[in-house]
């Protein structure tokens, strides 16, 4: 899931920029005022609207979506975010926190319900609720830049550390947003998203006066999504606006109470579980995680026999289903060989289970591809395939010493080898 929102925050106390101009100094003072104001709020309610459009060069029509949200919060542990609008380009959940229970609703995908969540900051930084270290943020909440920007102003734990992404500040001048007089700032950011450089200028309009409410946010995304070779140039625009600010609202507990899921809606304990559930709808093999592996025996290439139960109790068993006619197989088998070399001193047995091919064809394929030093079992009649719900290959199953299926991998990518080593 690629994020549109760049995760960053220019916090109060940012180090000085050399040769600061008067405009930079004024912008910095306003940014410090903005951050201090939002960090001081104990209660808050606001409505926001985020309009996003994407259009490919040469195409007559593009895609446009509008997400409307109502946010209510009471520090430290009451939160309600109601989202309206269908996620075509990105989606943002509705979310509730009350009595240390966090509930997220993702339209068309399901619900996530996590207990033992002590605060709003803990909810936004919980891996069970979408926080990802690689993405450097919450991949559910931070897709909407309007919400992401506000959260990082509100919560020090969410915004800390992002001051290094601020490459420059500029005060553009006074302006008007709707009926409000505003200050217009430009914040130049340089950060990384999923390991890739990301540059973006944020145009921010702040209400003038003692209460510097956010009024409008418009990022310049021209450098964030560069044109890919052979692909048409994409133009992406986003405009976020805020309205109906109230920094001293009166709430009841009902304001933070999550609605009940429908009878046909699934509730998951974590974001990972929700994603596995979605994938399992297309590939039931993923449902095997956490179940006990059934025993089986198969002939090995070159003689002898492999029996699963003889390995369990003492060793972890990796079963990888493959066939000579599947294009990714050479790379997946070579990856298994590398994994085997890395865990050779551990109690691990790796077996590559060939599906449907005859022994001579398997031997010829392995010789042609330069694959050796790997144990190969033969399931020519597909007797084991059904019990591991193999619908696509390669499929790799990790069985623990206790016989429980710990992990199921479908397909093969660059992350397969290091992930498998970590699991062993």
Would you write up a description of this structure?
The chain is α+β, with helices and mostly antiparallel strands and 424 residues long. Helix content is 21%, strand content 36%. It has nine helices and 21 strands. It has helices at residues 22-40, 120-124, 145-154, 156-159, 271-282, 308-311, 329-342, 359-369, 416-423, and strands at residues 43-56, 63-74, 78-84, 94-98, 101-106, 110-115, 131-132, 137-138, 166-177, 180-193, 196-207, 214-220, 234-246, 267-268, 297-299, 305-307, 316-322, 348-355, 375-379, 395-399, 405-410. A twelve-stranded mixed beta sheet has the order 9-10-11-12-13-1-2-3-4-5-6-14. It has a five-stranded mixed beta sheet with strand order 19-18-17-20-21, with helices on one face. The longest helix is centred in the first third of the chain and has 19 residues, at 22-40. It is elongated. The model is unreliable at 1-19 (pLDDT under 50).
What is the gist of this entry?
This protein has 9 helices and 21 strands. It is of the alpha+beta class and 424 residues long.
**Number of helices in the DSSP assignment:** 9
Mean pLDDT: 84
SS elements, strand count: 21
Order of helices and strands: HEEEEEEHEEHHEEEEEEHEEHEHEHEEEH
Which terms would index this structure?
alpha+beta; disordered N terminus; 36% strand; 424 residues; 9 helices; 21% helix; five-stranded mixed β-sheet
Task: Describe the secondary-structure layout.
Elements (H helix, E strand, L loop, with lengths): L21 H19 L2 E14 L6 E12 L3 E7 L9 E5 L2 E6 L3 E6 L4 H5 L6 E2 L4 E2 L6 H10 L1 H4 L6 E12 L2 E14 L2 E12 L6 E7 L13 E13 L20 E2 L2 H12 L14 E3 L5 E3 H4 L4 E7 L6 H14 L5 E8 L3 H11 L5 E5 L15 E5 L5 E6 L5 H8 L1
Parallel strand pairs: 6-14, 17-18, 18-19
Antiparallel strand pairs: 1-2, 1-13, 2-3, 3-4, 4-5, 5-6, 7-8, 9-10, 10-11, 11-12, 12-13, 15-16, 17-20, 20-21
Helix pairs in contact: 7-9
């Amino acid at each position: 899931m690629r994020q549109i929102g760049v995760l960053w925050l220019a916090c109060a106390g940012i180090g000085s920029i050399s040769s600061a101009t008067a405009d930079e100094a004024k912008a910095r003072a306003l940014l410090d005022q903005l951050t201090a104001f939002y960090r001081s709020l104990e209660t808050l309610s606001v409505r926001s609207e985020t309009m996003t459009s994407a259009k490919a060069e040469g195409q007559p029509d593009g895609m446009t979506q509008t997400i409307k949200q109502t946010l209510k919060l009471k520090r430290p542990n009451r939160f309600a975010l109601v989202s309206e609008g269908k996620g075509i380009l990105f989606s943002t959940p509705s979310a509730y926190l009350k009595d240390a229970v966090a509930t997220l609703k993702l339209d068309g995908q399901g619900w996530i319900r996590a207990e033992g969540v002590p605060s709003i900051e803990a909810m936004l930084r919980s891996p069970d609720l979408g926080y990802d270290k690689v993405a450097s943020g919450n991949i559910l909440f931070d897709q909407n830049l309007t919400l992401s920007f506000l959260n990082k102003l509100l919560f020090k734990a969410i915004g800390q550390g992002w001051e290094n992404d601020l490459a420059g500040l500029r005060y553009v001048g006074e302006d008007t947003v709707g009926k409000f007089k505003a200050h217009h700032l430009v914040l130049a950011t340089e950060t990384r998203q999923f390991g890739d450089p990301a540059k973006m200028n944020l145009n921010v309009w702040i209400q003038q006066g003692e209460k510097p409410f956010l009024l409008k946010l418009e990022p310049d995304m021209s450098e964030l999504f560069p044109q890919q070779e052979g692909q048409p140039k994409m133009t992406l625009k986003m405009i976020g606006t805020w309205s109906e600010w109230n920094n001293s609202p009166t709430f009841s507990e009902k304001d933070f109470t999550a609605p009940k899921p429908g009878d046909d809606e699934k509730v998951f304990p974590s974001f990972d579980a929700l994603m596995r559930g979605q994938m399992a709808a297309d590939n039931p093999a993923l449902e095997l995680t956490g179940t006990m592996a059934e025993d089986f025996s198969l002939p090995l290439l070159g003689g002898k026999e492999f029996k699963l139960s003889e390995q369990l109790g003492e060793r972890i068993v990796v079963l990888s289903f493959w066939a000579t006619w599947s294009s990714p197989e050479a790379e997946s088998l070579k990856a298994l060989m590398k994994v085997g070399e890395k865990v050779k001193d551990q109690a691990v047995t790796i077996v590559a289970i060939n599906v449907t091919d005859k022994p001579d064809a398997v031997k010829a394929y392995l010789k042609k591809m330069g694959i050796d030093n790997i144990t190969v079992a033969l399931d020519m009649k597909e007797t084991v395939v059904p019990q591991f719900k193999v619908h696509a290959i390669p499929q790799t199953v990790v069985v623990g010493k206790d016989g429980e299926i710990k992990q199921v991998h479908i397909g093969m990518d660059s992350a397969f080898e290091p992930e498998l080593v970590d699991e062993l």
